[in-house]
Amino acid sequence: MRTELSAEVLSALEEATSDVVTIEAGNDLVTSGEAVSHIHYLLHGTVLRYREDKKGHRQAVGIGLHGEFLDVDSFQLRVPNYSMRSLDKAEIAKIPFDGLDALLCRFPDMVHILWTSTASESIALQYWIFRIGRLRGEGRIAHLICELAERLRQYGRFESGELNLPLRQCDYAEACGMTPIHANRCFASLRERGFVDVKRARTIHVLAESELRKLAMFNSFPVNSGGNPSGIVD
Amino acid sequence: MRTELSAEVLSALEEATSDVVTIEAGNDLVTSGEAVSHIHYLLHGTVLRYREDKKGHRQAVGIGLHGEFLDVDSFQLRVPNYSMRSLDKAEIAKIPFDGLDALLCRFPDMVHILWTSTASESIALQYWIFRIGRLRGEGRIAHLICELAERLRQYGRFESGELNLPLRQCDYAEACGMTPIHANRCFASLRERGFVDVKRARTIHVLAESELRKLAMFNSFPVNSGGNPSGIVD
DNA sequence: CGCTGCATTGAAATATCTCAATCAATGTGG
DNA sequence: CCACATTGATTGAGATATTTCAATGCAGCG
Q1: Residue A110: what pLDDT?
Q2: Does the predicted model carry a pTM greater than 0.85?
Q3: Which residues of A touch B77 (CB under 8 A)?
Q4: Closest approach of chain B CAs to the CA of A149, in angstroms?
Q5: B184: exposed, middle or buried (Cβ count in 10 Å: 0-12, 13-18, 19+)
Q6: B91 φ, ψ to 5°?
């Protein structure tokens, strides 16, 4: 989740950062079951969080956008229960736990900021459950598009209705609990209805956001404080 | 999530409790979008957390068992994004935010305990997403049964393979993102296969847990520290 | 007995998956 | 520039899974 950070806190975070790494597209930065010693802050890029079954089928359980903490929960749990993979060339700040501990002493507000990030994450996951549990194919894709649009907009990166992210159709499929083939058909249907247009590779043009929202029963996404907090979709 | 609390912390929590309320089966104790001023600790009973769409269809996004905090995230976010309903006669301790603040000052460890509860909740939600996203009907029901069995077992309340909870088939359906009719057929199928037996109303006899686990690709559930943390299901 | 709340069943309509190809864009080496 | 490999999108068609609608069954209870 995105968090507004004061300049002071920001520079303290920067100080606490042990490493800034660059990860090529398609590589894992965290592996499920392997203990970590730091949390990640995404400076640039897009990251997919996922769980895998024994057949190697992935289920996405989150998408990290730039400017977001990726795994604050690991600060408490130490061993991630998911893997994370960058979808493009990503730049990531690693903030070690011990540095974080020191930081929390110096800036007590930091506790609230990070803890809130964990809590927002929970709420976001509940949206995902709703999406996969209550909607059918078309609605699920629409719902995810709405979520990403909403988040990018709040970060000021949703200009001219363009969703510019490195997600492939099969990534949408993994996030929506469906086959890539079915995802493709849902995209086709949304396109036929005139709701979206896939401009070029991986750029989705949102043409009728309100229709998408209706279809997806989407209400605004909880990016720290934003929007309609009512769980009732309207 | 269940948390092991020291006697000292426990009594402090008790002190901080403003109210212990009893809620009859089927009543809401928290309503989505309505600000709260305290968190809930479930002393006795079973609680369903859910989100609702405009048609009134519910999607469960969590099940609270006795001995668990129900909504620590509200301590950070103040406005719940979900509703909660008791499935039986429930006894609930309300711990007001300000009391909690005071408590956290006196017992710094408390931060870790509660924060961890929030983080575990996230992990649990990821299991739910996996369940609904990657499994089909039978597997989903099996997965939920495994989760509940696992949690009850860790609390020492899973004697003689009996799942004794007030969940109706339609509650399983709401949690698994499917129609109650379909849930019924999945139960029937699990019964025919000899994996479970529904003894009497609302009591599920688990006959072949290992088979259930295999079917559900279930690996142990994260109830604070327990089990195989690897996300790879085997 | 006649409710009521849940579980169960049947059958047709849809949605989704699976398998098997094809297509379009892009990049690479010669 | 061409031949070829690669990656991701697209299509078709049959097999399954799931939903929907409409009834029935079954037990507890006033």
Answers
A1: 87
A2: yes
A3: 116, 119-120, 123, 222
A4: 20
A5: middle
A6: -115, 125
